[in-house]
Design brief:
With 186 residues, the chain is α/β, with parallel strands linked by helices. The chain is built from 3 helices and 17 strands.
């Protein structure tokens, strides 16, 4: 844990959780029929952000959307015909015409999350105890371009029951914890 704190200090990690600020911007853009929410250069600590119809989340160069550590910052949910519970830094559930773009990074802070225990494995709960990087479910017309995803606490990018997905020049380096998948397409 001390090593994780040292890494966060070295990276200039954010300390104030900005989830509400960015969620309000996403909600406002969607309410207007769609639009772009720009995450500026710098580190932005967030829990779960839920993309809405017609919204592009653009990460400017040198912008870091850093996942807060601990499930208290995330809404977990169960899905029909699916194992376990789900949470992620960026979620789209039943959305249409959404995008994550730009030259910035989604940083999952994976090394700061606890590793699953033997008991977690026995219960089949190891993935549900940590946030994924990006998760889309039952969504259409998704565009993922140019950003990086680094060290989610679990799977990197999950696309479950989605249609019309375009992914270009997305860089995934996901080795911060256990269950380090890059892209999961189900």
């Amino acid at each position: 844990e001390e090593v994780c704190r040292a890494i966060r200090r070295e990276l200039g990690a954010a300390d104030v959780v900005e989830t509400a600020k960015w969620q309000e911007a996403i909600d406002a853009a969607s309410a207007k029929g769609g639009g772009t929410v720009v995450i500026p250069k710098g580190r932005h600590l967030v829990g779960q952000l839920e993309l809405k119809n017609g919204v592009e989340l653009r990460l400017e160069k040198d912008a870091v959307l850093e996942g807060a550590v601990g499930l208290k910052h995330y809404r977990t949910f169960a899905l029909p015909c699916s194992e376990g519970v789900w949470s992620a830094i960026i979620v789209g559930n039943g959305v249409t015409n959404v995008a994550i773009t730009g030259e910035g990074t989604v940083f999952g802070n994976g090394a700061a999350w606890p590793l699953p225990t033997a008991e977690d494995f026995k219960r089949g709960a190891q993935e549900g105890l940590r946030a994924r990087g990006i998760f889309f479910h039952a969504s259409k017309d998704i565009r993922l371009e140019d950003f990086s995803l680094k060290d989610a606490a679990c799977w990197g990018i999950v696309l479950k029951n989605c249609d019309g997905v375009t992914a270009r020049r997305v860089k995934v380096d996901n080795h911060g914890n256990f269950n380090n998948d890059g892209f999961d397409i189900e």
